[in-house]
Write a structure and sequence with these properties.
The protein is an alpha/beta fold and about 450 residues long. The protein is built from 17 helices and 15 strands.
C-alpha cells in the first residue's frame, strides 16, 4: 500500500468514528497534521469530483451549485502544478478577471485554500499570475476578453462558469489554439449549465468526458441547506438548472427556441433585392460588443441573416471601420444604427470613416426584447431565415424573453439587437414599425 493509499484509508476510517472520538483524535494532531487532514483531497473527494479514467481532452463538469465544482477544479490544477514540473503553464479562465481572483484563486475553495501546508502558493493580482512551489505558473484570463488569449501558450487550462462568459465561442477558440505545449494537453470545465451552443458542442465531442451532478450529491453540504433549496426551487426551471444541473434547452418564454432556429436554416438566394446592416454600438470601448449584422431580402419576400460582423473592444473609429467593411462586403443599401447611447456622435463617427455610407440613425423607445417580438413572429411565420450558423447571435436570440428581459450569455444582446434593427427595416419597414422611430 502506497503512502497516499494509507493516508486515505486512515482519514476515511477516522471519518466513520463517532463525533467525540474524532474530536479527541483531531485535538491531538499538530497544526501541519491538521492542515494535511483538511486538505488531503483523495480522502475527501466524492465520486463526481474525481478526474475521469481513460483518454480525454476535455473534462466537462456540468453540475448544480454546491456540487463542489470549484474545489474539484482547484484541486486538479494544484495536482497538475505539483507533478508537471517547473515549466508548466496553466490558463485560468473565468467569466471576469474579478471572478478569477475572487473564486478560482482566493475563494473558499480556490487555489490558495486547497494548497497543502508545505506548498508556498503566491498570487500576483496586478500580473494575473499564480506562482506554485514547483515553479509552475498559472495565468488569469476572462471570457469577457477573448483577445487576451491570442498568443499565450499553455499545457493545461481550467475554465470556470463557461456558460456565463460574455464571448464563449471566441474565448474558447483562442484558448484551444494556444493549448499546444507538450503532449497530452487537457482542459477542465466547471460550470452550471445554461443553454449556449458551445456547451452543446463540447458535450457531444468524442474527446470530452461529461460529469453531471446535483447539489445534493455533495455529502459535505449541510442537509438543512439542501432541503431548504429543494423546498424553495424544486421543480422550477431555476431549480432544475441550478440545483439538478440540467442543461435546459430553452429559456422559458424565449422569443426564439433552438428548434425554431434549426427550422429556419436556409440558403440565401443568389440575388437579393436589398441588403441592410444593423448596428448596435457599444457604450464604451471596454464595454459590450458592437453588434454588426448583415441581413438581406429575397425576391420571395423572405429575410435572411447573412453575416455576423460584430466586434468587441475597439474604439469608435475601429467599430465604424468594421461597419463600413461589412457594408462594402455585402453591397448594403442601408445601415440602420441605434443612437440611444451616442446620439449624433454615432452617425458622425460612421460618416467620418466613409462619408458615402447610407446611414439611417434610429432611436429605441422600448427594450430590446419587446423590440424583437415582431421580428420573432416573422421567423415563426417562415418569413425570415438564417443563411448559415451564427452561434453567438443564436445564443443571444434564445435569451430574449417575451414581455421583456434577457437571460442569455453576456450582459447585453448586442448582436441580437442589431439583427432586429436590420430585419425590421427589411420586413416591417421604418414607417410601419411602431417600436422604431427614425431621426
Amino acid at each position: 500500500m502506497s503512502e497516499e493509499e494509507a493516508l486515505t484509508a486512515a482519514i476515511v476510517a477516522l471519518a466513520k468514528r463517532p463525533p467525540l472520538e474524532r474530536a479527541w483524535v483531531v485535538a491531538r494532531l499538530t497544526e501541519p497534521q491538521k492542515r494535511t487532514l483538511a486538505t488531503f483531497w483523495p480522502a475527501w473527494a466524492h465520486e463526481g469530483q474525481r478526474a475521469p479514467d481513460g483518454e480525454w481532452r476535455t473534462w466537462l463538469m456540468m453540475a448544480g451549485r454546491g456540487f463542489g465544482k470549484t474545489r474539484a477544479g482547484a484541486e486538479w490544477v494544484c495536482e497538475m502544478a505539483r507533478t508537471g514540473g517547473p515549466n508548466l503553464r496553466i490558463a485560468l479562465v473565468g467569466a471576469t478577471p474579478g471572478e478569477v481572483e475572487r473564486v478560482m484563486v482566493r475563494g473558499t475553495s480556490g487555489l490558495m485554500q486547497v494548497a497543502r501546508y508545505d506548498e508556498d502558493l503566491l498570487w500576483y493580482p496586478t500580473r494575473g499570475l499564480v506562482q506554485f512551489a514547483s515553479g509552475a505558473q498559472a495565468f488569469a484570463y476572462s471570457g469577457a476578453n477573448p483577445d487576451a488569449l491570442r498568443g499565450p501558450e499553455h499545457h493545461f487550462a481550467w475554465c470556470d462558469e463557461l456558460a456565463k462568459w460574455a464571448y464563449p465561442q471566441a474565448t474558447w477558440d483562442n484558448l484551444m489554439l494556444g493549448l499546444r505545449l507538450g503532449e497530452g494537453t487537457r482542459v477542465m470545465i466547471t460550470t452550471t449549465p445554461r443553454p449556449i451552443a458551445l456547451l452543446h458542442t463540447l458535450a457531444a465531442a468524442p474527446d470530452t468526458k461529461v460529469v453531471r451532478g446535483r447539489t445534493g450529491d455533495n455529502p459535505n453540504l449541510p442537509e438543512d441547506f439542501v432541503a431548504a433549496m429543494r423546498e424553495r426551487y424544486g421543480g422550477t426551471r431555476l431549480g432544475r438548472q441550478e440545483l439538478e444541473g440540467e442543461l435546459i434547452e430553452d429559456v422559458e418564454g424565449a422569443l426564439w427556441t433552438r428548434a425554431l432556429i434549426e427550422k429556419c436554416r436556409a440558403t440565401a438566394p443568389e440575388t437579393l433585392a436589398r441588403v441592410v446592416i444593423g448596428v448596435d454600438p457599444p457604450a464604451s470601448a471596454s464595454g459590450d460588443a458592437c453588434g454588426i449584422i448583415a441581413c438581406g431580402l429575397g425576391a420571395d419576400g423572405i429575410g435572411y441573416v447573412l453575416g455576423d460582423h460584430s466586434v468587441q473592444g475597439l474604439s469608435p473609429e475601429g467599430w465604424a471601420r468594421a461597419v463600413a467593411a461589412a457594408a462594402e462586403a455585402w453591397s448594403a443599401d442601408r445601415i440602420i444604427v441605434e443612437t440611444n447611447q451616442g446620439g449624433e456622435m454615432v452617425e458622425s463617427v460612421l460618416r467620418g470613416v466613409d462619408s458615402g455610407l447610407p446611414v439611417r440613425p434610429v432611436k429605441a423607445r422600448f427594450g430590446k426584447a419587446k423590440r424583437a417580438e415582431p421580428v420573432a413572429a416573422r421567423f415563426e411565420a417562415g418569413k425570415a431565415k438564417f443563411a448559415g450558423a451564427f452561434p453567438e447571435l443564436e445564443d443571444q436570440l434564445c435569451g430574449l424573453v417575451s414581455g421583456g428581459g434577457y437571460e442569455g450569455p453576456g450582459r447585453s444582446p448586442d448582436r441580437a439587437d442589431a439583427m432586429v434593427w436590420a430585419m425590421a427595416e427589411l420586413l416591417i419597414g421604418a414607417a410601419k414599425a411602431p417600436r422604431v422611430r427614425g431621426l
